[in-house]
Amino acid sequence: MAYSQCTDAGPYTVVIIPLRSSLSSLDALRFYLWIKRLKDLEREKDCLWAGLHVLEQARLWYQHRLKNNKARQADIGTRAVNRAEDWEEETLAGEGASSCLLRSRIHKVNGSLGSLISEPNVTRRPSFTEWTGAELSDSGKLCWQNTVLAQEVCQKNLQISLLELERDRLLQELSVHLDVECSKDPD
């Protein structure tokens, strides 16, 4: 009577209590229902433990994914910083360049975040009852368009950063040129 149908269930205790009255009495029925309820509660407990185990595995999987994504972001950021520093050393010299470089790095990070957000694996996946097949293909098209637009924004941000760096370099050259001319004129 008190055994489990689940293969992963823990051990159960079988209790045999002799009744003073007959099996068809009200006390025997109450006792049978009480034992049945205990058995059902034990099965429910086992199912809850199994569900908790599944949730724990899912939590560990998501933590692993987050760790991998953070490592990938750090790697991308390191490569972007190294490329920006190399470019700065080759093309610029001056104090204004560091603020422009910082702005260009911010634009790059924003572009990377935009592309990460638009990645289809990061977004919430709707259930089958929420979407029909046609809507799912429209959703896929929108996701693709969002990805393309995010890449375009990233490219435009890079162009803006490069133009700002060029502008600051030209302004610096102009100020040096004006300082030289002012020092020549003894007015």
What does this structure look like?
It holds the Pfam family Suppressor_APC. This is Suppressor APC domain containing 1. This protein is mainly α and 187 residues long. It has 2 domains: 1-65, no CATH class; 92-181. Helix content is 75%, strand content 0%. α1 packs antiparallel against α2 (96-117) and α2 packs antiparallel against α3. The longest helix has 66 residues, at 26-91. The chain is rod-shaped. 5% of the residues are buried.
Summarize the structure.
Helices cover 75% and strands 0% of the residues. The chain is an all-alpha fold.
Provide the fold topology.
Blueprint: H1 26-91, H2 96-117, H3 133-184
Pfam families: Suppressor_APC (PF11414)
Protein name: Suppressor APC domain containing 1
InterPro entries: SAPC2_1/2
Shape: rod-shaped
Number of strands: 0
Major β-sheet profile: none
Radius of gyration: 34 Å
Helix content: over 70%
Structural class: mainly alpha
By oligomeric state, this entry counts as single chain
Name the descriptors:
Suppressor APC domain containing 1, 187 residues, disordered N terminus, mainly alpha, SAPC2_1/2
